[in-house]
Amino acid sequence: MWKENVIDLKLTRFFEISARALLSLLIFAILLAILAAIIGTFHDLRLVMGHDMHGAFRTILVDVLTVLAIVEVLRTALAYFTEGRVKVTYIIDTVLVTVLTEVMAFWYRDMNWEKITMVIALVLSLAAVRIITVRFSPRRLREEL
């Protein structure tokens, strides 16, 4: 019995150390992706000098929103690194930023109303879930008690 507990503790410790090491590599990769996206955004600023201002602004807008989505992924990874769990609100924020990036891109495309309706329903659903997760979060419930 005692040996089983020691083995379980060692395996748990090994898993935690391995997960932290891999998460550190992931955070480094995310930071490199953010840096590359920012460099790409500055590179796309050259498009403003061209004749198609509308297309240039669309490209830059999508680039900036993509960087913000990557930042939300970084925030989720850092929350797991510090707290040992993933917060649902961070995941929902990441998905919302990504979906809103697509919505912004819709402004520059011809979309049928069914797809637009589905995207609006998705955004409203995510917003409702986000409100519910904040309202009924474990931390908030503990504070109320």
UniProtKB/TrEMBL annotation:
Transmembrane segments: 21-43, 55-78, 90-109, 115-133
Superkingdom of source: Bacteria
Coarse class of the protein's main subcellular location: membrane
Location in the cell: Cell membrane
The keyword Repressor belongs to this UniProt entry's keyword annotation: no
GO cellular component, one term: plasma membrane
Claim: Lipoprotein is one of the keywords in the record: no
Keywords recorded for this protein, A-Z: Cell membrane, Membrane, Transmembrane, Transmembrane helix
Protein name in the entry: Phosphate-starvation-inducible E
